[in-house]
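Design a sequence for this backbone.
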C-alpha cells in the first residue's frame, strides 16, 4: 500500500514537472517568434511596408529619345509600377506590316512637329504634378486618364484608357470650335476645352499611353484614308501582346490592324516624325494628301 502510494506521488510529480517544462518551451518559442518579427520590422522599415500595399504608385522616369526625335527634350513621364515598356521593346514591325519612307516637308509634317513639341511640354507638366508642384486641371485629367486600369493587364488597360479618353472629349469640328478648317491641339488644350475631332482624340490617347509607361516604339498615330465616307481619319496604334491594336474614337472596340478593311493606311506619326506608308496593293488607291 505504501509502495503504490509512493509510486502515485512520484508519477504526479513527474507529470507536473513535464507540464512545466512544456510550458517553458512554448514560451521560448513565442519569444523567439516575437524577436524575429521585431528584427524584420527594423530591417524593412514602415515606409517599405506601406509601399507594398495594393494602391498603385507612380515614379518619374526620365525618357529621352535618339537623334532627330521630336520628343527628345528630356521630358519625364509617370511610369506604372508594372512598367509595360519591357514587352513593348519587342516591337518588330510597323502597323499593317508595311514599310515606310520619311516625310520631312509639307503641311502634315509641320503640324506634327508643332504638336509633338506640345506633347513633350505637356509631359513635363505631368512630371511637375508628380513632383508635388502646381498642377493645372487639364494635367490632372491627363494623369487620371493614364492611370485607368493601372492594376490590370496590358490589353485591358489599353481598352480602359481608350474608353476613358473617348468619354472625356465631346466630338466637335475645328470650324465649330476654333473658326478655322484645321487645328491640331496639344493634349492639355484638348482636355481644357473637352472637345475636338479625330486627331485630337488620337493625340490625347497617344500622350496618355506614353504617360502610362508604354514605350515610344509601341505607340503611333496613324492617318487612314476611309473609303466610306471618303475622308482622312486619325487613330492610334499600340503594340500589345505582340500585335498592333487600333484605337478609334468612333468605336470603343479594340481592333487588330490586320482586321481594318474599310480604310487605307497613309501616314504614321511618332517620336521620329512623319513617315509615309509605301504603296502596295492595299494603299495604292489612296494618293491624296492628308487633310482634316
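Sequence:
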Amino acid at each position: 500500500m505504501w509502495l503504490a502510494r509512493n509510486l502515485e506521488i512520484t508519477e504526479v510529480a513527474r507529470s507536473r514537472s513535464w507540464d512545466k517544462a512544456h510550458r517553458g518551451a512554448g514560451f521560448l518559442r513565442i519569444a523567439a517568434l516575437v524577436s524575429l518579427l521585431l528584427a524584420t520590422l527594423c530591417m524593412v522599415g514602415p515606409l517599405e511596408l506601406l509601399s507594398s500595399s495594393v494602391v498603385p504608385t507612380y515614379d518619374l522616369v526620365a525618357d529621352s529619345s535618339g537623334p532627330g526625335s521630336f520628343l527628345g527634350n528630356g521630358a519625364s513621364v509617370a511610369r506604372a509600377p508594372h512598367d509595360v515598356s519591357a514587352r513593348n521593346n519587342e516591337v518588330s514591325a510597323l502597323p499593317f506590316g508595311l514599310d515606310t519612307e520619311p516625310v520631312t516637308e509639307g503641311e502634315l509634317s509641320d503640324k506634327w512637329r508643332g504638336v509633338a513639341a506640345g506633347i513633350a511640354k505637356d509631359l513635363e507638366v505631368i512630371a511637375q504634378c508628380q513632383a508635388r508642384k502646381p498642377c493645372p486641371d487639364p494635367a490632372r485629367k491627363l494623369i487620371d486618364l493614364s492611370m485607368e486600369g493601372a492594376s490590370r493587364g496590358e490589353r485591358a488597360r489599353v481598352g480602359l484608357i481608350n474608353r476613358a479618353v473617348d468619354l472625356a472629349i465631346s466630338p466637335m469640328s475645328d470650324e465649330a470650335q476654333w473658326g478655322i478648317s484645321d487645328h491640331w491641339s496639344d493634349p492639355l488644350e484638348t482636355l481644357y476645352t473637352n472637345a475636338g475631332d479625330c486627331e485630337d482624340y488620337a493625340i490625347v490617347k497617344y500622350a496618355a499611353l506614353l504617360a502610362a509607361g508604354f514605350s515610344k516604339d509601341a505607340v503611333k498615330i496613324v492617318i487612314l484614308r476611309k473609303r466610306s465616307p471618303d475622308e482622312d481619319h486619325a487613330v492610334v496604334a499600340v503594340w500589345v501582346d505582340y500585335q498592333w491594336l487600333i484605337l478609334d474614337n468612333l468605336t470603343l472596340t479594340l481592333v487588330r490592324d490586320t482586321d481594318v478593311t474599310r480604310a487605307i493606311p497613309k501616314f504614321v506619326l511618332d517620336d521620329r516624325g512623319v513617315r509615309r506608308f509605301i504603296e502596295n496593293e492595299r494603299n495604292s488607291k489612296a494618293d491624296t494628301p492628308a487633310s482634316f
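The chain has one domain: 59-277.
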